[in-house]
Design brief:
Layout (H helix, E strand, L loop, with lengths): L3 E7 L3 H12 L4 E5 L12 H6 L1 H19 L15 H26 L2 E9 L4 E6 L4 E11 L3 E3 L12 E2 L1 H4 L8 E5 L3 H12 L3 E5 L11 H14 L2 E3 L3 E8 L2 E7 L5 E6 L1 E4 L3 E3 L32 E3 L10 H15 L13 E3 L4 E6 L2 H7 L3 E7 L4 H6 L5 E7 L5 E8 L2 H13 L4 H5 L10 H10 L14
Parallel strand pairs: 1-2, 1-5, 2-3, 5-16, 7-14, 8-9, 8-14, 9-10
Antiparallel strand pairs: 3-4, 4-5, 6-15, 11-12, 12-13, 17-18, 18-21, 19-20, 20-21
Helix pairs in contact: 1-4, 1-8, 3-4, 3-6
Length: about 475
């Protein structure tokens, strides 16, 4: 093993492995350090996202929806089925195969691009040196012209519900359940709580989500959030807002959760399993030597500038470990930007246009500003809304819940944001993200020819509705 590199990346999640591949493509001698081990004790790349996050959760979301649809909705299409069952172990096994395929894929990409893959832990020392300790405990000091920190994040634990790995579990444990719990409690009704809650709700659990905030999905446009809450409640999710958990007690195979409800009264609920998903925090344990020169901000994130450079020359940080939304795609693009800047390019990243997605069914997706943010900033804007119930393609697919909401500047008509709850929301919002990247107006989208019948037409109609020109719904009177 060489001990001198152009670039050393610490962490091989979506931010780290993408940074390593791009750096190698640019002719830089690159190594990537990863501490993750699979159940067989082998080093694997991919970080949280591929191993216990984005990918396995989507596998379970899709499997559980297919079961739910077969059991409850296929008769709508005239399809008759016999008794429908669910093999949870088989579902978890499928998820594991997908994870193995993708993590193995990164190993192949590292090999084809010439990235040196090192399994173990990395600690940043002074002068761009990295202390690498392999899984056998053998230590070596490596040096690099540039170091990219991409160590990601980990679930936040709360003292009122300590994880025991059996009855009280975190998001990782929730992906490994081999039986459907009859009563499932979820602390936190954010992105992760909703996704995991909806998986087990479809499979037959009675799911209660306890959320401390008074607003549902406070980061999302509130019109879309309220519509989403209605849809999820109809699906059987019991979402309780303004509920602060104050304690939990495991009794045999059950857990009794005590919380303060929205009326300020103490209440209790008993569950067979309790998932704690109240957010994530940056992972920096054992990462930085005191003289590394890298500073943390007041929330424990590594302090970086707009180009992801830290205070230490030649040291960069990307992904969940730095400011900004904890999104895999945001981390990946930061990884590309840093690799290209190391290679002498002037790459910049547009932080104003990062799509955000919740993979429930229907999906929720957003890009740009919410109506609440624009009101607060005193911006003048117009809104166009198109419900999926008016879409021929959505009707044909029996996917009519939700809407597209487009927001454009009142004077310039430039698109400021798009918010969707409905079928294929993630892919639809990406169309608007591309348009926004090119500075499009609502009229630009309105004048674009969309295929018929497609779900995309809902985006087209919402853009037309911004200026009162929608064809397939009555137009709202414009505000004076």
């Amino acid at each position: 093993m060489s001990d001198k590199y152009d670039v050393i990346v610490i962490g091989s999640g979506p931010a780290g492995y993408v940074a390593a591949i791009r750096a190698a493509q640019l002719g830089l001698k690159t190594a990537c350090i990863e501490k993750w081990q699979n159940s067989k004790g082998q080093g694997v790349n991919g970080g949280t996202c591929l191993n216990v996050g984005c990918i396995p959760s989507k596998a379970l979301l899709d499997s559980s929806y297919k079961y739910h649809e077969t059991k409850t909705s296929l008769s709508t299409h005239g399809i008759a089925t016999g008794k429908v069952g669910i093999d949870v172990k088989g579902m978890i096994g499928r998820k594991a195969k997908i994870v193995e395929q993708l993590t193995g894929g990164i190993a192949g990409l590292f090999k084809s691009n010439g990235v040196t893959s090192l399994f173990g832990t990395g600690k940043l020392l002074a002068g761009r040196q990295v202390e690498f300790t392999d899984h056998d405990g053998k230590t070596q000091v490596l040096s690099a012209d540039n170091v990219i920190i991409a160590t990601g994040s980990q679930p936040i634990n709360i003292p009122v519900a300590p994880i025991d790995g059996k009855t009280i579990i975190d998001s990782t444990g929730a992906l490994e359940l081999t039986e459907v719990p009859k009563r499932l409690g979820v602390i936190g009704a954010g992105v992760i709580g909703l996704e995991l809650g909806s998986v087990w709700n479809r499979l037959g659990s009675n799911v209660v989500l306890l959320e401390a905030m008074s607003d549902f999905l406070s980061i999302m446009d509130q019109q879309i959030a309220k519509e989403s809450q209605k849809i999820f409640t109809k699906q059987g999710l019991d979402i309780r807002l303004s509920c602060r958990v104050t304690g939990s007690e495991v009794k045999g195979k059950e857990v009794v959760v005590t919380y303060q409800n929205s009326e300020g009264e103490e209440a209790q609920e008993t569950f067979d399993k309790l998932i704690v998903c109240v957010g994530r925090r940056p992972y920096t344990e054992g990462l930085l030597a005191p003289d590394s020169g890298v500073n943390l901000d007041e929330r424990g994130f590594i302090f970086v500038n707009e180009q992801c450079a830290t205070n230490a020359p030649g040291v960069w940080a990307v992904g969940d470990v730095v400011r900004g939304p904890m999104l895999a795609h945001k981390g990946s693009e930061e990884g590309v930007m840093v690799a290209e800047r190391i290679a002498g390019q002037k790459t910049q990243m547009n932080y104003d246009i990062i799509p955000n997605v919740i993979y429930t069914h229907p999906e929720i997706a957003a890009v740009g500003k919410t109506e609440e943010q624009l009101k607060q900033a005193g911006e003048h804007y117009n809104v166009g809304i198109f419900p999926f119930i008016a879409s021929g393609r959505a009707l044909a697919a029996d996917e009519t819940e939700g809407m597209v909401k487009m927001i454009a500047h009142a004077e310039t008509d430039r698109i400021l944001g798009c918010h969707i709850v409905g079928p294929s929301a993630a892919d639809l919002v990406q169309q608007v993200a591309i348009a926004m990247e090119f500075g499009s107006s609502a009229e630009d989208i309105g004048m674009t020819v969309f295929g018929h019948p497609t779900l995309s037409e809902a985006v087209h109609e919402a853009a037309l509705a911004v200026n009162g020109h929608a064809i397939h719904i009555p137009n709202r009177k414009k505000r004076k």
